[in-house]
Amino acid sequence: MSSAVADCVFCKIVAGEIPCQRVFENEHVLAFLDINPLSEGHTVVIPKVHAERLEGLDASQTAELARCFGTLATKLMQATGAGAYNVLQNNGALAGQVVPHVHFHLIPRRPDDGLGYRWNAKQAPPEELENLRARIEAVS
Fold it and tell me: pTM of the predicted model, to two decimals?
């Protein structure tokens, strides 16, 4: 595995130094059952190359991760009988990232599973959105 980080738990899993319940693997991606699941079938999907945050991957590495989501989600839903699922990904400790290696959570959902989520949206004025769009566009 290229660019592994010696003290990264996910790099150790990729290297086979820490066991896991693998549910999918190819040359670029590894998916395994979370050892602290939020629900039955909670799966972690990681690139085999180490990057702390999503922007640390190049476009092809990101695409390799995304390619497996649909197939994995279908298998998880059929195996667990879940009716829906969340895809969760955090970048940086402030956003809730605990393991500093890019990873996605596929979390099967069932009625009354108690997981919930908060989406505290507020309407933004059009001029605020235009200003932000212009600032984003200006970044090279």
Answer: 0.92
